[in-house]
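Quick one from the shared queue. A colleague (R.T.) flagged histidine kinase as missing a structural entry in our internal table.

Convert sequence to structure tokens.
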Amino acid sequence: MVPMSDSAATNAQARLLAAQGWLKRADERRPWALDLALMLLVTGASVHDLVAGGRDQGPFGELGKADLPVWALIALTAGMILPLWWRRRRPVTAFGAIVAVSLVQFGLGVWLQSGISLLIGIYSVAAYGSLRALAWAYGVLALDLCLAVLRFVPFERGLVGLFLLLGTTTAAASLGLVVRTRGAYLTALEDRATRLEVERDQRIRLTTATERSRVAREMHDIVGHNLAVMIGLADGAAVLAESRGERSGEPLRLIGETGRQALGELRRVLGVLRSEPTDEDGLSPQPGLADLDDLIARVRAAGPAISYRTSGDVRDLGGGVQLTIYRIVQEALTNTLKHAGTDTSATVLVDEDNGSVRISVTDTGSAYPQGPAGEPGHGLVGIRERAGLYGGEVVAGPRDQGGWLVDVVLHNRPAPEDR
């Protein structure tokens, strides 16, 4: 005998595993198909009994003659095959029915090929039933075979036949236990993999939360501290300027108020970053259209003449789009103050029309710097990014009649649940 090479053994193992995987997937999709195929296979093996009239010979030698009509043989064969349909859903019941019919056939002195159903039945009890039921089923089957060989259907070599029958029965039960154990092992592996995945996700969330908390703490220590110092200096300078009657007191006071607002927003952002706000600032709502009046009033107090009007159902817009509008107007007016100065005038228009929102901010300034082409400032980049969240379009640049224009159109109306 030529030994099998390693590559041939590997290929054979791969084919067996592939066949096993295909069979398992097919059984999961159509579990009834395998049971039906098994019943047809046992039926095909039993055709010889119907042709020979059950009077040929048994598996271990000649049998005594048994004169049974064909309909009786058909009934006995069907009684041992049909219970296989329920072998997985009701393994003990199916096995009991098969054993009962087998006792009848043995009592009539015949040994049908459909008796293989006994092996399939004990296998099903071992694989799908309880261990207590398996012990009872094995004992009943052993008694059934002993009665058949030693009493009802004596063989020429009865003891040898009984030994082989009990060995075959034990092998079928053992195979069922192996399948049962392997299924439990695979289930345990799947459960363990699921638990490991959950633990991994938890570790990732904990690590992320720790890193977010560290970043928030550093931002609070550095940016928050510097903002607090700037606010203190601005307030002190404003008080000093007002005591001396200087005109710089009002801008310094506005610097202090703007710094306090920035510090409040920083605390809000850090509260979200930590995911555990500790004060009311972390729970306060984001600004919306109702806050534009205060924003424009603060900018107007710095010098520019600003007009503001709205049209359409702007108050019905969702919180997300209102925040986007507020930030776009805030950035545009900040650029107006930064580049056009305090002697300019500006117009802010917010128009809602059939789900689309247009934000227009124009001013009359003429001191805007001309940067390199294709390199917009950080403010315009932020405006474009916010508008992009709502499928928006941004037009920004100098006007023909002088000044600067920021025109944004948001196309997508927010979902109802965001309102």
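Residues 6-156 form one domain.
The first helix runs from residue 6 to 29.
Added to the table.
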